[in-house]
Every structure is written in structure tokens, then in C-alpha cells.
Amino acid sequence: MLRRVLIAGRGEIALRVLRSCRELGVETVAAYSEADSDALHVQLADQAVCVGPARAAESYLNQDALLTAALGAGCDGVHPGYGFLSENADFADACVKAGLTFIGPSGECIRKAGSKSAARDIMRAAGVPVTPGSDGPVGSPEEALSAAERVGWPVLLKASAGGGGRGIRRCDGPESLPAAFAEAQAEARACFDSGEMYLEKLVQNPRHIEFQILADRQGNVIHLGDRDCSIQRRNQKLLEEAPARCLTPALRFRMGEAAVRAARAVGYEGAGTVEFLLDADGEHFYFMEMNTRIQVEHGVTELITGVDLVRQQLRVASGLPLGITQEDVRLEGCAIECRINAEDPARDFRPCPGKVEFLHFPGGPGVRVDSCLYNGCTLPPYYDSLAAKLLVHAPTRLEAVRRMRRCLEEFTLEGFPTNGELCYEILYHPVFLRGGCTTAFLDEHLGELLEFNRRLAEREEEG
Ligand code: ADP
Ligand code: ADP
Ligand code: MG
Questions:
Q1: Under DSSP, is residue 223 helix (H, G, I), strand (E, B) or coil?
Q2: Ligand 1 atom, smallest distance to 235 CA
Q3: 83 Cα–ligand 1 center, Å
Q4: Among all ligands shown, which has an atom nearest to the Cα of 271?
Q5: Active site includes 293?
Q6: Half-sphere exposure of 115 (CA within 13 A, CB side)
Q7: What average pLDDT does range 369-386 have in this prediction?
Q8: What is the pTM of this model?
């Protein structure tokens, strides 16, 4: 087993990784930026090393500083968390070259899955259905136009290196294509340092359904069921549940099989996610991308399967086989996650981190909170606005919904605005209760959800 692991990430996922390490008797070294010196995971780690200033480019993305920290602290492994360098093939290679185990798939595998445009070709060849779109990248608006004419409007222009919903623009016809192309490409260059674009036909009113994968070095690949992540704002997930209510056992079997085939096609190792779009007909599904890391919403899968995914990542990276087979995997009950972000939904979800003046987290049966916040801490403005993940597990979906409402009623955070109230409203919305949300749900109903909120606030003020 790995002996000492550098955690090359921050926030709740750093703490999450630390917790599994500790349970396995693996020592932890927190690599942190100057902005995170008071962070909870830094205080809890066995050792902590400052790797640079607040700016991510100089700290959490600084490969040399991270490798120096790992070697200096006597680590034998590096866990990249999510975001930052977690899907950076060069970093995975550099770790190995330095004699460190990268807790994730090989650089080669990350390279194959990481270019979303190239991954489409690999998946098509492996017999996994992909969204209709361009064959390979489109280098100019003219190339995009001819690809769009071929697949049919409307289309989505997407960044090959994309992630977190960035570098994506919808385009309804030839007139708006040049502007949409320029916008998406500029965002891609700014976020991912790569302007490579590809194009997909827009699937109308789809659901985002993804499968959790686990694979070991011995060639075993299994899936741990599915998550419905259709509730999104600006192509970014807000509320997730597992299992997806809209899948019949037969469809779950087919999609799970496709997900395993996708993972095999890139030589996968460790924990990963295969994302699909499920068509409005509830039958056709298309490969969208493979995320070669632990994902924000992994907790809902842990709750319904009882499998600790980070523990499995550490085991696989240590060369041990998966302790479970596909037949062992049981999906029990229903789990829901709300991502509580420091943001203002009424002002276009503008991030607004700050100091936590007062904090109370919910607890009790079937509740899990993953967060790095504590009373008096400050959420730095330099990084993601994720403040806490509230998760619940219950025997049925309705009980899980009620449990999450109860959690949000208990949850108190003073100091900056969050999307907590918005999540609460979603949990009462008839479309959500019916299990009918597509990826268009939040955009379509945002006004109505916020309006209700505003009236509630006014009533409270009136006493
Ligand atoms: P998805 O990429 O499907 O949205 P997650 O929601 O799990 O998956 O994203 C993981 C986290 O990493 C989010 O906080 C997201 O903003 C961030 N992220 C994803 N891809 C990148 C990237 N390439 N660069 C920086 N941050 C990213
Ligand atoms: P990222 O790497 O940023 O997570 P994805 O390719 O996973 O990007 O897409 C993010 C979201 O954008 C999806 O969850 C879905 O809501 C939407 N989306 C992506 N591709 C399509 C498509 N072809 N048709 C409709 N919606 C799409
Ligand atoms: Mg995605």
C-alpha cells in the first residue's frame, strides 16, 4: 500500500481524500497555496507544504513546485483531486518519471480521453454510440459551417479540452456561427490554453446520465451504476441524484455495458466517469465525454453502493485488484446531492465568496456533508465557488427528497449568499418531483423558482 500521499488539490475534495487515506493508514501531505494556509485540510494533514501564491497558475497548477513538495516530504504517491492538474497527462507522466505513483489513470489514457474530439473517434470505433457531430476538430468557422450543415441545426460548438461547462456555445443557424465560434474559442483559450474546437448536434431536451467506473491494473473493469445530473445552470451541475429515475433495468444494463466498453477502449485504471446524453425518447443515448478523475458528485454513488471510491483509487494505485465484482454491486435506495456554492442565483450566479460568520451543518440519519468550511473561516475568491456538498440517502426517492428539504431547513450559513434557497425550491417543483427534469429544466424555470424565493423573503421581512 502507498505510504505517504501528497494531496495536490484543495477544498472539500482535499479533505475527502485525506479522510480515506487516514482510514487506510496512509499518511497525508497537504500541498497548499498562500490563500489556503488556514484551510481545514491543511490543519488536519500529517504535514503541509506551501507550494506558492494564491494564483492557481503559481501553486495548484505549478507542476515543479508540487513535485518538489512531494519528493521533499518523502511521498510515494500524488492524489490530484479534481480540477487543477487532475486531467493533465503531462503531470501524470511527470509524477511517474519522478518515481511517484499518480493516483489516477496513465498519462497515455488521460491523453486519449482528454481530447474530447479524439475520444469520440475512439468510442465510435469501440461501438459506443456518440452524438452526431464533426469528425475530428473544426479549425475555422467555415469548417464548422460545413459540419453543421451536414449534421443539421442547432449545434453546439465545444472545446476539445473543455471541462466544467466552459468553452461551449449553442448555435442555431449560419448567421450566428462566426460569433459563437469566436466566443467559444476565446473562452477555451482562456480556460484551457487550447483553442481546438469540435462540433456536436444539439440533442433537444436530453438528460445527463453518467456511469461511475472502477478499473484495476489486472484488467477488471466494473461500473457502479448511474447518476442523473440534468439539473444544471450554464452546463454546470447543481443537483445530482443516484440512481437515475428514468432508466429501466434494461436500459441501465445497456448503458452500463457501453460505459465499461468505453473505459476499456482507453485502457482505464482507477475511478472515472463516462458521461452520456439520454435522448428525450428515453431510449437513445450518446457518449459525451469521459472524465478521468474522481468527480464532484461521486458521493451519491458511494451512498447507494456503500463503496468508498477514494479508497478504491488508493488500492488500485497501490497495485491491488478491485475488491468487488460487477455482481457484488447493488444500488440501494436513493441519494441526492446539492452543491452549495458561494454565488447569487438572482445575479446570474455571480460568485460571492467571503468570510463565514456563522455556520451550522445538518446531521442526523442518512445525511453526509462534505465541506472544508468552519466557523470564522474565509472562502478565498481565487478558486471554485463550491462551499459545501449536502448529501442524503434514503430508501425511496420521496424520502430522500424530504430528507434533503429537512437538511436545507437546518443548514445555516451567514456571511455570503448561496444557492441554498434555490435548491430548496427545486425540491418542491412538480417537474422535479415527477422526475421529469431535462438539462433545460433550470434555465426554463429559473425565473419562477427565484420569484417564489423573492416573495418568501419579502414576507419574512414583513414579519
Ligand atoms: P464536469 O466536468 O462534468 O462538470 P465536475 O462537475 O465533477 O465535472 O467538475 C469538477 C470540478 O472541476 C468542477 O469544480 C469544475 O469547475 C472543475 N473543472 C472541470 N474541468 C476543469 C478544467 N479543465 N480546468 C479547471 N477546472 C475544471
Ligand atoms: P464539460 O467537459 O464542460 O463537462 P460536456 O461535454 O460534459 O462538457 O457537456 C456539458 C453539458 O453540456 C452536458 O451535461 C449537457 O447538459 C450539455 N451538452 C453537451 N453536449 C450536448 C449536446 N450535444 N446536446 C445537448 N446538450 C449538450
Ligand atoms: Mg462533462
A1: strand
A2: 4
A3: 5
A4: 1
A5: yes
A6: 16
A7: 97
A8: 0.96
